[in-house]
Structures are given as structure tokens and as C-alpha cells.
Queue: 4 jobs
Job 1
Amino acid sequence: MMRCYQAARLAGRHLHRLCTHHWNFPTKTGKVQFSCSSELSEEEVFSALYIPGSRATTADGVVTPYLDFSKQFEDVALLEHSVTQRCMNIDVNGIARKWSEWKELEKLRSDLEEKKATLTKAVKTLQKNKKDKEQVNVLKEHGKKIRNEAKALTQKIWDLEEVAVIGALSLPNNLHESTGTNDKLFFSLSKKPVFSFHPKSHIDLGSTSEELEIVDNSPTAYYLKNRLALLELVCNDYFLSTMNNQGFSMMSNSDFVKAAIMEGCGIHSRDRPQHNRLSTGAGHDTTPLHLVGGGSLQAFSAYFTKQIIEKSDHLPIKVITTGRNYSSSGPFSLTHPGLLGCRQSSVVDGFVLYEDVGMQEKTLLQDAMVMVTECYLHLGVHFQMVQYSAKKLNVHESAAVGFLMFSPHTGQYHEVARISLCGDYISRRLWTLCRKDKSASFVSMLHIRACHTAHLLALLMENGQEENGTYKLPGCLQSAVDSF
């Protein structure tokens, strides 16, 4: 019975919303049911990226972001237009006003610190002459007054920091000049597939072939079996070998990152609990970890956090990994069950660090688009390459290109690959720099999700299905599967 109570108590620690859960535990006398149904207050989540002065004694900062938003606030109207295009609910004018107030108070505090230092120096000089005791006392009283002013000012600054600094850090990346209000179709291979029969879902196809099992204890849990399990390995190797041939070097990332890294990549502190946060369950955790998977932007960014690349000649740095990716909780998994809505999948991810000078960014972006396009061209399955509109961008993206495949069952396009242009948005927050002469500058980043394997498997099954419930694979993949 003690274990039952402990299990119920542990489960209760992770309930942050109005919810009802029941657990049935077998005992010698039958089953004991525990239920938890109560309105629990939301756990207060503080920023892990920027630690304001009010929490400086109780929390440790992993990294402190570079705080210079002067360029963003030079044209508040343009910034507000960018936020509106993204359909984000942010009070840009309010943040800009608070930021200006905070900067003014910081300057005032700096002036007081200078005055205090000058007075201290003057007192030490006068103390050497014992005849100037009266003047020393006057200066000490003046110094005491300045200290009290600084103390009162510090409290005002701390109050403003919560709104001004953390508010400024919640602003999205600047939109790239090519990002518009509507999606732009760059390329489309062939046309949507047409079937003489009613197309089945990949879930039905996988169940018939006994290659896919959706687990009942979670709407997003699944097992790949037999040929489908081999196909996952083949797809990963297919994209991995292609990118290796294009000069990408293999690396292995951590599956876990600190909360500060999540915020550095644009995840707001209030949204972090949705991103697989791990809790110790022992009070307020100031430095929680998040399960993101080695195949993620956050894992790459964590590796290069607080790194200085010694020579610009070493750029661009191109790295690639294949590993798990764990997405955030959301309504998508309920709308699209099976592999199209799963929260974990194998992925093939590339990451490029470069110096944004001349035409380098444009060249690297075009090279990435050509490389990924050629990969999907060889599969011979209908897909589209689309540049996303501003409202479809993530916070860290200034522009993004998606590769979409059609699902005959849902009648919708689903993303199988994505190229994200990040600029120096993340490097400024996590301090990734390149040394140049006697100075250093923040590098730019390009994230390449070459393949979301779970999505690709589902769409290959649906697009290659036969009337008898079987499915055919593209020749280049089938030959690799047969070689096993």
C-alpha cells in the first residue's frame, strides 16, 4: 500500500491543470483506486536565461544573453508590424517603453556608483590629514545618502527587469526580406497521387502488414516492426550519406539541455513546461532539464553555447547528426494520430555556423535547398517545396522553407523536412562568437531538418499503397531494405 500512495503522490506533482486521473493498483484483496481531481494552481515558471537581481541570490545563471536591443527599438512600428505578421500577441510599445525606462535607470545607477567611488577616494585622501575630520564626516554623510538612493533605485530596476528585459527577450527574430504574408511555392514534383480505390491510412496499412503498432497507453506511442523498422534505418542512412558527401561532419549531441538553452532558442519561459521538462519533484527547480533529443536545434545550440571560434577561416562549420527528436505537447497529435502526430521520431538534422558577410548566407541557403530537394527528387514521390509565410515561422526563424508530402488519407500536406534561417538570433543569446582580428562577432546559424523519419514513413506508405493493403517503396529505398 505504501508504494501505491507514493505513486499517487509522484503523479500529483506533475499535474498543473484542472484534471482527473484514476489509477487502479492490484492488491491481495482486489483493486484499490486512487483518483486526483482538483484545480491545481499553475506552477510559477521563472526565466532561466536571464536572472533578474531579485533572484540573483537564489538562482544560478548558465549563460547571460547579450542585451542590446537598440536596433530593434529604433523602429517600433516596423517591429510591431513584424510581430503582427507572425500573429503573436506581444505589446511591443509597452516593452519598448519599459526598456527605455530600464536603460535610463541603469544609467542613473551607474552615475551613482561613480559618485560613490569618487567620494570613497576623497574620504581616504582626507583621512590621511587628521585636521580634516569635519570634512570627512560631511563626505561620509553624503556617501550614505548616495548609498540609500542607489538601494532604492536598485529595487525599481529589479521590478522593471521582469517586464523590460524578459519582455525584450520574448521578441521574435527579425523577418528576412524574402519572408512574406503568404506561402510561396518554389517547386513541386509531379501531381497529387490519384487512386482508383479509397486510400487507407498508414495506420491501417501498418496494421494489415503487421509492421506498425500504435500503443493504447498513449495516442502518440508506436512500435515499428519488420520491414518498416528496417525502412527507418534505411531512410536515416539515405539522407545522412547524402549530407556527408556535401561536406557535413558527423557529431553526437546530448538528448537533454538546460532550460536556459530552450529560452536561448526562442522558447518563452511560460511555455517551457510543454517541452518535456524533467522535474526532480523537490520544490522549485531553478535549472530544470528538458528532453529534446540529440536531433534538435536546441541540442546543437547547447554544444556551441559560450564558444569562440578562433579564426573566421574555420567557417562555415557544417555538422550533422541522426538521433531522436522529442517535440512539445500540443493539439497536433490529437488531430493527426499515428506517425503524423507522434511526439518522438528519428530525424536527420544538419547545422551550419557561418559569418554573414557578402553572399555567404544566400549561397549556403541555396546549397541546402538544392541538397534536400535532390534527396526527395530521387524518391520519385510527389512533394512541394514552400517558403513559409511569417505566421508559420517559429520565434527563432527569420525565414523557413518546408518540404511537404501529400497524405491521400487526410487530404493534407505534411512537413517532412524544414530549413530554418536563424541569423544571429540564437548566438547573441547563447554567446557563440567568431574571433576576427582583435575583436569578435556573433555567428549566424542555419538549421536543416533533412528528414523527419516518422512523417516520411507514414507518407511513403500512403503514397505507395496498393488496393490489397500492401505498399510499394521507391526503388532506391527498396533495394537498400532488401540488402538487409
Note: The chain has 13 helices and 18 strands.
Job 2
Amino acid sequence: MKPAVHCPSQNPLKRSNLKLTVALALAFGAAAQAHAQTSLGEVQAQGQTSATKPGDGFFLKAPSGTVTSIPESQLNTIQQFNPEATQAQTEITAGQFQSLDPTDSFTRGLENMPNVVVTSDGDSMNGDTVYINGFGQNLINWTLDGIPLNDNDSYAFYTNEFIPTRLIAGTRYFPGAASAAIPGLAAFGGSVETYSLNPSAKPSVSLLGGYGSFGKYNFGTLVNSGLLGANSGAPTSLWFYANKTHSDGYFDNTPSDQKQYLFKSVTQLGTGALTLFYTQNNQKFNYYGGCTKADYAKYGDTCNVYRGDPVVNGKQNGLSPTYNYNQYQNWLTYAKYEATFGKVTVSNQLYYYRGNGYGGGAYTNSTYNLLQPNGVYGSVKAPVGGLFMSHGINDTRRWGNIFKLTTPITDNLGLEAGIWFNKNDTTHDQQFISSTTGQYLGSVYKEPVSTKLYEPYFNFTFKPTDRLTLQAGLKYLKTERDFIDYAAVAKSKGTAGQYSSSFSTTMPSLGVNYKLAQGINVYSNYTRNSNPPQYNQYYTGTYNPDLAPQKATTYDAGVIYDFGMWSGGVDVFRVNFDDYIQSFSYTPPGATQSISILANVGKAVNEGIAWQNNFQIDKNWSAYANLGLLNAQFTSAKVPMPYSPHSTMALGGIYTVGPWRAKLGVRHTSEAYWTDFKSPIPAHTIADASLRYTWKGGDTVRGLGLQKVSVGFNVNNLFDKRYITKYSTGFPGSAKDPLIKYNLPRSYYLSLEAQF
């Protein structure tokens, strides 16, 4: 396994400082707003872009108040809709994230969306597996505050990194076609844009903690500085977050430790705002391998394939740094400056990512061919009385820059243009270590990969009338990749194992939105996506220099409606997926043994309907009802795509009265299939519930020096339903009898937050 490794509330300042405070609040809001809104390329009626119009937009409103106070309009709903969008788009509110268990991965915020599957290997804090419209998460574009997060080599995305649910302002979810203005890779299954909360102009210190099932607990703090330097030329507000989470693990030998540190500051500089951001994630956990049906019958549903080897596992439910052990250290930081000069808004975002970690395993073979420390490739014997311990190390350094310019050209024509550059260097190194001495014995492979990405784009938005919006965009992606396998070079004495490749592609998008009547808009969109081959084209059997990028053409059309109490949308979509890269066996002429080779042999069609509804019954009651219908299959092989159920349904409600807020949700997923296209993932229905009570003010609270106290209680899998989430191979006999992984049973979590 690879590592990837708010708006300020009014502050009681002096009247002379009020104007500055308001200006700062707008600057803070623009920092969260600008990337979300300008990425859509929307133009207001008089040619004014949304980036120059503070007060409009979901992400300006979402973090209003303090960093620990989300507006009721966001807490009392899970989804909102943009009536002027020219593509399918849902704004998942902070209300959805705030109702989750605070130790959950933030990707669980997607689980109520149509045609979405979210599963986890035992616990969400160790990572989720996400499928949208039949596409896995390495075929979905993920961003945080506008920064693409997918691994540049395999396009993998690791859900347990980057940001906790507590600090999320909201997510823009594009389940298919997306604007050319969204940077990133692998957007076949859509784009998921998540935005962090901004700091508050009001100082506070929050103590956080919780305890729940399977020995899970967390404790931490969130500090808001408040407005600093209000009378200076650079007024600033910032927050700092630190948290530790531990779980014993429900399944045998699956404990986990996670530490997170985050920082964000926003400074007003001239006509713009400078945002600084830092996140660090340190995590250790033992991997859950699953069990055969026979072992489940013998040991119960807590069975783990790793339980039977105490030599390398150590004590029960103790973190083992040897066998099934994973360790991650990940850092992401960025600096973004955005300012408006006249009618032109310019932003530049420089970022750096470091991921370092490994997955541990053990091998019982007596000898292995390894690249030894002395540079010689050859046979190495297992240590006397011990095993080969494996550390699959991956070390990634990635930096990039995103430049954007947004401006009206005429009163009804707007332009957004920019360029994304990304440089990624990763070393993949499977090291073998002596279990008795800890000595490094050599590497099965040692592969540095260097990737450069260049992606310029432009996006026009034209409003010939108040009712009609037209959008046209184009982005160009050029990828340069260099690869070395030092083990192969040593084995062949320099005749193999070094490759370079270059790919380029052009991706257009067209969209239209028309207002039929008050509260009813219709839209249609066409988007072309393309992805260069992953780096595995080099190490899978035989290198294929003719391997071409995968391509997808997305068509969608729909209606967005808002009748006050009832809002929602219906989207009909089709994705034609071409040149899908598949591995197959090939016997060269004159050879007696087959080899593996990658080739563009696959075609797929993903088509369906997504229907979303939100009901604001009154000030206390809101509800949602979402339905997804999906047909996703590889047309060339005539088999279904993995994790592509024919139907999903989600129903739920939120009740708010006084200090109480309760949420109950039920979601149903029909049968799907695992990656072998024949092992079933059975249909299942799961219910979750949450309840929160918040004390604000009052003599007791104020007497303790508190601004508020909040107590939350979450129940996941309310009715204790069990089902197979996935299968696992890679163990003796598992190719014919895959190991089974089940979902977690009913679990509880009690959380507490005290804000001073």
C-alpha cells in the first residue's frame, strides 16, 4: 500500500475599526469563495464574475460566524443545488460533515449521494474505498482548497489524509462532467472539491475529545487567534488544530494510531488576501486481511488472516511494526494570494506535498533474488531462524503551482484562464529486512519515477440573456514521465529497466443552462476527459511503448428546481470510456511461457440517472431523498464494472429545536460485484443516527469561562446489519477462495467539545 503519504463574525471592536473588520471579513470570505466559484467560470448579469461579488456563493456563507459555528442553514441540510450550473453539481454542506463521527474519514460525506459506494476495511479512519458511477477513486479527481490530491503515478487517493471533518466548510461534488477550469487528473468519475474552514475574527480555544466502540478515543484542541493587527497594514486571523485518535480495532490485530496537525491563516494584503495552510498526518495501523468462510466459522466474524502468526504479530491487538503494518507520514502546505485589480481577479497558489511511508509483510521463502546493498543482483538466503520482512516503501515529493485569472470581457462575457504545473518524484522500494537482526538485505525492486504535468486552460461563460448561460472551455494536458528500475538494470547489466514517455491530450467542455421558469432551470453538458497511462506500464511484465491514454466522453442533461420547501435535481448521464488499460497474458512467438502485458483493449459504458431532493419542511425539520440508477459495464468483456450497483437510495431527516440537533439516515445499495466481475457484494441497507446538544451562553456556561459546550453521540450501523464489503487475494489459495471482508457491526461514539 502506498502512502500519499468561518467567515469572521462581527467583532466588538471600536467603531473606528468596524470598516476594517468588515473589509477583512470580505477578504476572508473571498479566499474560501474564490477558488470554488471561479473554478465554475460563472458570470453574473453585468459581466461581473462571482469572484468579485462577495456575498454570493455557498462557500462564503458556509464558514460564517466563528470557525466552530456553522450557520443553521448549513447544519440543517446535507445538500444544496446551484440553479445556474451547466453540469451536474451538488454542494454537500457542513451539516453533512458535522453529523459524522468526528473520527471518520471525510469521504463518508459522499455516502448519501446517488450511485456512490463508500466502504472501509474495518474502520473509516484507516481509509475508505470510494466508487462514483462505477469508477474507483483513482479515476476520480480529488482536490482540497483547489489543490489536486491524486497520486501522480497511480492516480490513487488516500481518504484518511489531509483534513478531518471538523474543519470542512463544504464540498462541491461533480459526479461526471466538470468544467475545464478544475485542475487535476483522472476525472472520469467526476471531481470532488473540498474546502477548509476559514479562521474567525473572534478568539477561542476549543478542547475536543471522545470515546467509542472498540477502544476508540480521540483528544485534541482547536485554537482561533481572533483578529490580529486590526489597525496594521496586514490584519490576520488564524487557527491551529491538533488531534490524536486511537482504535484497538474490531478485527483481530487491527489497531490504529493517528496524529493530525493543521494550521491556516488569512491575511489581508492590499486588495486581496494571503492564505497559508499546513496539514500533517502521521498514522500507524495493522492491515485487516479478511478470512475464509471456514475460518469465520471457526473463529467468528472478528477473524483476521493475520491472527495465526504470533511470531510476527506480537500480542493481540498490539501494533506490530513487522508483518501487516502500515506507517504513513504526509505533509501538505500551500501559500495562496488572491486579489482583485479593477475588474480582474488574479490568484496564485504554490504548494508542496511530501508523503513517506511503507506497508509491512513477511515471506517464508528460503531465498530471494534481490538488488543487494553492494549493487549486485542475485540470490539472498533468509536469515537463520528468521524470515524475510518486507517494507514496501514509497517516498513522494511533489510541488506545483496554480495560476488563475478571471475577468469580464464584456457585460455578458466572462473569461477564466490559467495554468497548473506539477512536478512529482516518487521512489518505490520493496526492501527485504532480516526479522532477527533488522539488517537491510536488499530490494526486490527500486524504482524512482519522475513526472511533470503541464495543464493550461481557458473557460468562457456567455450570458446572452438573463435566462441563458453558455459555457465553453478547453484544457491541454502534457505529461512527461521518466522511470528506472535499478534491480532490472543490475540484473541486465544496464540493458533494460529505463524508460521515458511523453503524452499530450486536449480536453474540451461545452455546457448550457436555461431558466425555464421561476425555480426551474435545465442544463446540458459535454466533456472530454483523458488520462496518461499509470507508471505500472513499465513494471507489469513487458513494457508497451504503444500504450495510449485512457479516454472518456461524458454527456449529461438535467433539471434543477427550487420550489421553496422542495429543491433538487434530476441528472441523466452517459460516459463512453475508451482505451481502458487492461493486463492480459501474452505468449511471444517462439516462447514457451506467457508474460503479462498492458494494452488499450477495454471499452466501458457508464449510464444512469441521479435524482436528488431536499425538503425544508419548516425551521425545525428538513429531509432528503436521493435515488441513483446505474448501468456500468465493460462492453468489450460484457461484464459489470466493479462496485457498480444498479440502484442506490438514501433517505433521512434532520430535526433541530433549541440546543438539540438529531439526524437519522438510511441508505440502500443493491447487489454489485468485486473486481473479478463474479464475486458478489450483496445488497444491503444501513442506518446511521446522530444526536448533538449544544449549550450556548447561560450563567453556568459563562461562569466557567465557556462560550459553548457541545456533546455529540453517533451510532453507525444502527440495526447491526452485516454484509461482505470486498474480497482479498494474495494469500495461498485465495485466488480460488478469496478472503472475505465484512463491514463493522454497530458502533457508538460519544464526543465532547468545550469552547473557551
Note: The mean pLDDT is 82.
Job 3
Amino acid sequence: MSSFTYRAPQTVEETLSILQEQGVKARVAAGCTNILPDIESKKITECLLVDISSLDELKGIQVIDNKITIGALTTIDQLIHSEVIEENAFVLWQACRQFADPLVRNRATLCGNMAKPSPAADGVVPLLALEATVTVGSLTTGRRDLPIEEFLVGPGKSALKPDELILSVSFQGNNPLGSFTKFGLRKAMAISLINIAVVLEIKDGTIAKARIALGSVAPTAVRARKTEAFLCGREITPEVLAQAAELVQTEINPIGDIRASREYRLLLAGVLLRRTIEAAIAPGSELAQREFSDDNDRAESLQPAQAVQEDLEDEGESIPSKVEIESVRPIDPGVSHLNEVAIRVKVNGIEIRASVLPEESLLEFLRDKVRSFDVKCGCKKGDCGTCTVVFAGKTVKSCLVLAAQAHKQEIWTLKGMENDQLMHDLQESFAKHGAVQCGFCTPGMLVTAKSFLEQERYPSREQIKAALAGNLCRCTGYKKIVDAVSAVAGTSV
């Protein structure tokens, strides 16, 4: 019998009731980009998984009296495509564009990034610079608002109590002069050696207010208050920036680890502070470079997922074909399977009914039960992208989705796209350009490329590179893969 159980509450009140009843035994699950890797690595070996991914009341962005409130289930991808965030919190918008990779951004939430905050959390640092407030709820204590500095307690620790749920994060709007810089060992899926967020208010050519936050330099993300005070009332000159770069190094206490030494991080903090301030006061040049950005700026439509959900909820509508899947595990009459979760899902157009374990990933379900071996199993922790599928209208890494979350959703794998003309063109182009060597990464690459080209028919090479950033290849060096996608897109190679 699995040591995990699963609940999918339908309201916030029901969720809070479960958390009050279960306390530390419960783990909230939404995007699952952290919790499933923790289950895979045995950091979590038993718990009640409380799936809140369907709580619409925690989704979306609201603006009331210049106060911007982001619901706890708003994804990073949705923030990237929000004009409100881009225009009023440019520093956060930039951070979201550098967060993980496009596939992870389709699942990860900003509030999930805060719940167990890493010292390097890319979503937390800009919120510090925006002086954000975290709103949490509990049936015992009601709602409470915490300044984000009070919310951050230590590495992976927050002020969130076992019976509390993050409801939203909010901050004042009109923060156009801001910039975020992330320095990592690669452009995607890299833990920051240092990340820094700067928000400035300029009056009459001098700095009226400065807010500076840094990550990966202390047990939690921190504000550089001495440096902020030094900058206030001064014009931005090379001399002032040089002094600020020296001062900020006295306010941080980075460690040395496998990614960088303490000394390197100290030096890097000063260099990046200067560059980030320069970028903040020249937003025009930053905005002009968006078309050459490393990120895919196109939002994928949510309509297919909504249509499928409505279709599955309509019991009277005929389904082309159905498959009942029995458990692939031997059934032991002496073992209870009562904690399994019944799901109904469409895979490549075929409705499937099955029972899954609470902790089972969508990857495991597709390979072990649906027998979709075109979905490759690589790292099982969201790094490699070999398991990429289209889930609810979004390209995702299936190892980062709970199988139970697939209930009433639609999934497309490479095999289900075999009669699609665009996929056929991509496959031929991959063969022609030598983009396939061992072939293990190829299904994920193709699924990602097809979904991207459906949204961006004539992308630049930089956009293609950014779109494929969540799919790793050990063989080709990526050039041939980008060449193959570029050829299909009509872009010069």
C-alpha cells in the first residue's frame, strides 16, 4: 500500500479544513515542480497530497487602487504574458522570463516558489525589491498579511504554519524603473550563482528611493539597506556606482559551493549591482531587445484544455474510443489499494479510465499503464525534458505532473501527432540536418518544437533556442537541432 494519500479540495475553505485536520502530515500540491522531485529523491516518503490546482479563486491578477494582487495559483507563464506585470512591475516580469525554462514556467507558480524558499529563488528576489506582502489563510487564525522579509525564515523555510495556505502576494504598482539580473552557469534550468533585483525612483536626476534585493548571498534573499541609503539623494555616476558596488559586498555573506566560491560571489555582487542599476535607468534599451529575447513570448491557448474538460464532463456525449486500464502491478488480495485515485483522461484522443497512486507522476502513468514509450524517462526531476508532452494545452515535463491531476484533461504525446503535417515536416528536417544521434531526447524536442511553431510560425534563431531551453541533448551540441527547427520555420540557417 502506498504511504501517500490524495485529496483534491474544491474550495479554499475545504483546503483549510484539511490542513487544520492533517497539520504537518499534509503537503500542498499545485504545479508540483518541487514536490515531485522531492518524492523521487525520497526527501518526502509519506504524506497527504492536497491538490489545489483546480481552485480558480486562487488564480489570476487583480489591480485595485494601484495595488497588484497575484493569486497563489497564477503561473510564471501567465505573469510573463500579463501587461499589468510588465508595465507596473518590470523587475518581476524580467525575473519570470529568466525563471527555469518555458516548460517549467507552464506549471510553476510564483507563490510556490515562495512556499519553501531557496536562498536563490528567482521569484522571491524581485518581490523583496517590490516590498511585497504575502497573504496567508487559516481556519484557526484567519487571514494574516506578512511583509515578505518576515515571511522568509531560512533556507527552504518560511513563516507559513502547517494549517496555513498562501492565498496571494501583493505590492504597489507603478514600478517601471526596475531591473533583474540572474547569473547562472547556463541560460535555463540553472540555480543562480547570484540574482539581483533593483527598483528605483528618480526625481530631478537623483535617486529618491532605491530598493535592492539579492539572492544566493545569505541564508535567505536579503535587502541591501546600507547600499540603498547610500544611493538615495545621489546622481547616478560611474563613481557612485563604483562605491555602491564596494558597499554591497559588506552587506552579504555568501557561501562557497560547487557552483562558485565565496570570493567569486562577493566580486560578482558588485559587478552585477552596477550593471543592474544601469539597466534599470535605461529601460528603453532593454525593451528594444525584447524581440531578440531568449524567451518565447507567445502564450499558448487555454481553450483546448477547457473544451476537453467540458467534453469529459458531458456524460451524454459519445467518445470515439475508450480504454479501461487495469493496474500493471500484481494484485495481492492481502494488500489494500483503497488509496488509489480513479481518473478519466484522454490520451491522444482516446479516453482512458484508470487508477493511479497518489504520488504517481504523469510520466509513470503514460509509460507504465498507457504504454506510451514515445514518452522517454530521463532524470525524473524536471531537468532534461525527454518526457515532454502536451497537457491541458500546454507543453510540460510529465515527470512534474501528478497523474491524478490529469483527471478530465487531455494529453498528447509524440505518437498522437504522427499524422500531423507540421510534425512530419519537423521529423524530416531533423533527419536531414543530422539533429538525431542517440535519439533519446528527440521525442521531447519534437513535441516542444511543434507546440512552439504553432504559436510562432516565423521565429528568430534566438527564439528557437529559448523555446528549446527546457530540452537537453548530450549528443548534437544543439546547432543541428536549431537548424532543423529553423528550416521548418522558414528561418535562414
Note: The longest strand covers residues 194-203.
Job 4
Amino acid sequence: MNEKLQQCTDWNVYKEIVEVKCNNPHAVLGLHEDNGNQVIRVYRPEAVKVRILDEKGNNEYIMEQMTPEGMFGAYLEDRKYDEHKYLIETSYADGTVLTTEDAFSFDRVISDMDLHLFAESNHYEIYKKLGAHVMTIDGVEGTLFAVWAPHARRVSVVGDFNCWDGRQHQMRILGSSGVYEIFIPRVGEGTIYKYQIMTRNGEILYKSDPYGNCSELRPSNASVVANLDKHTWNDGTWMSKRRKKDRVELRKEPMSIYEVHLGSWKKSDTDPNGFMNYRELAHQLAEYLEYMGYTHIELIGIAEHPFDGSWGYQVTGYYAPTRRYGLPEDFMYFVDYMHQHGISVILDWVPAHFPKDANGLGRFDGEPLYEHPDSRKGEHPHWGTYVFNYEKTEVANFLVANALFWIEKFHIDGLRVDAVASMLYLDYGREDGQWVPNKFGGKENLEVIELLRHINGVVEERDPGAMMIAEESTAWAGVTAPVELNGLGFTFKWNMGWMNDFLEYMKLDPYFRQFNHNKITFSMMYAYSENFIQVLSHDEVVHGKCSMIEKMPGYPDDKFANLRVAYGFMYGHPGKKLLFMGQEFAQFREWSEERSLDWYLADEEKNRGMMNWVKALNEMYTKYPAMYVNDYDPIGFEWMDCDNAQSSIVSFVRRGDSKKDQLLFICNFTPVWQEDYVIPVPCKGKYTEILNSDAAMFGGYNAVNPQPIEAIEESTHNKDYCIKVKVPPLSAMVFKFDYVESPKKVEKKDKKEA
């Protein structure tokens, strides 16, 4: 062996390389300077010959085999090469010859500032650094791989490109950050890879990329190199308008949300798994949403997940749209197409927990990393999942950046944050002895509070107009209050209390509703405590809970009438709206992710009537500002009569910012016909029926009020005026009117006093 080559080689590092235990292979491998000369070393196990070529592929040097394990080197007098501007040609005994640039000759890409911000939880675009990123360095095309694994003894990138051999591309650690990186030339988009991790006790793990942007289709679970810059966006006008909005304006806009699981909305006839592509789904869904009058779509199960039955709530790829429906650029096309058709896109986001799959985040580098090391804080006993370690800054940064990733990189308009209550309370789903109090002895998770405020504050600052929606099932105060007012900073909150009370009420035989009248009126006691969304979600039509139509009591006609009045009341109630797919046409079966919705029902008379009813509600909802502009202002709602429990009829007014086109709702929750029923009204004038759930086109008996009704001056329920209407059984009616100021009454003076 060349004496100079031997003398300038760090044989301790060499030993770690051949034992595949090295976290700094660049210290030996690649191009190095030695007293004005150059040294090139490569590690090529099983190679029989290695040559150095110039950039054009011309033969320059045959490298000397330094060790039997496959270390090759060349000592070059003077400075022959400028950095990585050379090629390595490797020949094997079977005749295979591979030529590529030297991966170990490239300088590090991730800067100290990147690492500093990451450690502070303030690197809002860390996803552009960690993960796999196609790039060109000095004219050399390849992929930068970077991963955070601070407890690892060694990390390698493995894939088809190196025969899944962890010896080939051992990564270098960047200082004490725990971040490993390597740039691998000629590895590009579509390459399948994993991280091979040697733990401190010598165990070998194969992990998917936590920051990877694409995955194999389940059950395979390797990551796939993706290029997120391929799609040309055409929603510039949409995004410009979005950036000009704030939380106040968002509260004043209509939101009729269609909650969708893409894999079961419709099944493909050609795909062996039954999955439609994001692109064909975009066209079919946009057409349907426009027809039905929805303004928003909420997607469940988009982040990559291994098990279909989890619906996407057991996430392994937080930075990857699921491969079930196509590639990342296909999902970008989906969002783009929705925007071009005036539809906002909301994603379900799951920062509360993650599964224990071997390829996922759990025990990522052999020790608790993303999860809290104390099982009392790091596991959900009922769900069988890990809980994020919110105390660790790098984990917090993973979640903050992930929220921004979907909003900024995929133009998502809002995130519905799943299971917020499980994050906020240390004792959530745990028995005594299974949880640890905070430093003040309470059950509030202080780190989560700060994290949620951080996420919501950053989203509002960087991406005004993007929504953060909390699925929070308790009475936690200030969920939608701004961060600067010590709130959690969410834009909206799911109204779980209203949903539970309302469904319990609607399930009752109409006779018993009179004894439970408070279940439909109580929600107004807290309606303005948060910015609520009224929801009838997927959780309510699974696991033996029955479909919406089957929750309703009575014979089939009664069930449909009950559901129509339920939806009518829901749309009239203050708050934005959400219906899960299939509810709009009264699907009889519970939802299952394994099959398509029962679309044949849309051709059945009663089901078609229900679809027409929801369509009409959406059209009314978006047409009349009284339905939405004052959702969160008490001026927007007033009970006319909420006390008639015996008749189970409620009436109320919805007001916009104008005296014109105010709306009167009348909801009859019994199968009893009411003739000339007295409804108090706020003013004189004409009341014109614009919707009636009993109309024939909705599946009713057409007991409508075709002519405007003139208010009469007759005091009732502290109102000076009323109307007398026929109220069909189990019906919801809506009347429009213009508010007219009533003349002030002048009290007559006694003649003797005059």
C-alpha cells in the first residue's frame, strides 16, 4: 500500500466503517487534502476493481485496494480535482460495472442555523431540509437524505440503488444535533428507500422516513423519493384572496362542509384495490359539490397510514399524502382543481398520537424519540398508540412544521385537529395511577397548551385565511379565543355538545320529546362561548351507532320526515355546518371504509327527496347572509318560541347585517298537524315561505304555505305581532321577511289630567 495513503488514513474511523458502525464516514471516505496533495478513498465491498474517471468518463487512476473488506484509495500528488468533480467506476466479479459521482465528496447541505432553529422548535420549513429532496449540486443530480436520530449508533440510507446494503451509504452526523445527512448522486424521483438504523445496543431497524413525501402502497411501507415542485399551480387568485382574510372575516363566511373518505365515496371499477385516483376524484367530487351547494370539503385519511380500518387516524407518514389514490402531485392537482371550482379544502390532522408499527415513528432510533419515554405520558392505553413527546423541542417542531407543510406546500385551506381533548388532559382515557400531574399538580398538559398556541399563532401569522379547527369534546375555555387573549387560538371548534344532545333528542319517539325539550334548546346557552361548527360526522354512523336515517324513530315515511326536520333545525342553528358523505341522501347502512356509498339509493324517491332537501338547504344557506354572517354574534339569533315543550315546536329568527331578507324558522318535532298555529314574530309585514321540508320534491305531502302571510297585531310571547300558519307534522319551514320598525305606542292621557 502507498505509504502516504496509509499514513493519512484514520484507521479507527475505517474500522467503524467496515463494522458498519460509523456516524462520520466522510472523515475517511471521499476527497481529502493532505499537505497540498489529494487523497480519495471509497468503500466498495465485493468490488474487484475501482477506477477514478474524470467528469467526461475518461480513465485516470486505478485505485489501490487498501484492505480486504473493500476499502480502495488513491494518493494524488498535487491538487488534481476540484471538490467532487470526478467519477468512481466500480467493477464486480459478475461483470457488473457501476459509475457514479462520489457521494462522500460533497459538502454538508444543512446549515448550523437550520439545526439551531430546529432545536428551538422554530424551523417552520424544516421539512425542506429533513427527508429526501431531489436537487442538483454543481451540476450533479441526486437526492439529499436527512433524518433526525440522536440515539442511533449509525444510520444508512438503503434501497434498490445499493441492494439494501447498509454498508454503502452510511450517513454523517451533524455535530451534536442528532441529524444525519448524505447526498447520493444519481438517485432520483421514484427511488424506494428506508433508513437502516443501528441502535446503541446493536439492533438493526428499518424505518420509513418521518419527513418523507411519498410511500409505497400498503402493505409495503418503504418511502419513495418525491418531487413536490412538479405541479404547476393554477389557484393564484384563490390563494391571493385567502391571504387577505382573517379570523373575523372567516367567521362571517358561509361554511357548508362535506366530510369525505376518498376511498369509500366511490370505488374504482378498474383498480384492483378499488381506489380512484386523486385526479378523477377531483373532477367527480367538484361536480357533485357544486351541484349540492357545498362550500367546503373535509378529507379524512389523507396522511399516509398502514391500516385501512384506521380511516387514516393511525398515521405513519405525516408528510406524505397516502399512495392509495396516487402521487403527491396528483393530490396537489386535487386541491388545485377544488380551488378553481370555488371549494375550500380541509384536512383531518392527527397530532395527538401515532401507531406502534415497526416501520414508523415508534422507538425510531431504538429509544423513545417522538413519543414520551414515560408510558404514563407516552401511550394511550385505550387506543394502543404512542403519544408525542410534546416536551421535546424537535418533536414540537415536527408538528408545527407539519401543519404549515399542508397549508403552504399543498395549499390546504384548513386543518381539523383530531382528538384535541386527549392532548389537553393528562388523565384523558387513563385510570388513577396511569397519569402524571403537571408541575402545579393539575391535569392540564401545559406543554400541549403552549404547542397549540404556537401552531395556531404561527398559522395565523404566516397564512392568514387558513383555518385551524378543534375537535374538542370538553368545556375547555377559550378554544377559539385568540392567542393574544390567552386562548388556544383555533378558528373554529366542533360543537360536540350540541351534536350529542341533538342526536339523543332525535332518536326519541316523538311522544317523549316533550320531556326532553331542553336537549334542543340548551345549546343556545353556550352558543357564543366559542366559534362552533355544527357537525354530524363520520363517528356518528359507525360501530353500531346506525346511519342517520336509521337513528330516526317510526315507519319509513316518519324516518325521512324526522331526518328532514333534523337537518332543517341544524342548518338554522347558529354555527357553520358539516355533514358526512351519504347523510345527504339518507344512506340506510352504516358507513364502512371497505365499500362505496350506496349511490343506487339516489334514484329512490324518498332518498332523492332527501338529497333535494339538503341541496335546497345549502342553496338557501349560501344565498341569505342571515344564515351565516352573525353566527357568533347574539344579534344573529332570537328565539320566537322555545317553551312549547308539549307541542315540541320551536321557532326562531336568523338575522344578517341588513333588515332585508331576515329568516324565520319553524320546526315541528312531532307527527301532529297544526292548523292556524300561532307563531310570534318580531315585526309586522309579510312572511313568505321559501322552504318547507314537507314539499313534494323533498318527499313530503306538500302541505306548504304558497301565499305570503301577513303578520297580525296580537301580543304573544312578549311580541306584538304573530302569524298563523299551518304546520305539517315533522316539518321544518323557513320564511323570509324584511324587518319593519313598529311605531312607538303613545299612551293616552286621562282627560282630567290634560
Note: The chain has 18 helices and 37 strands.
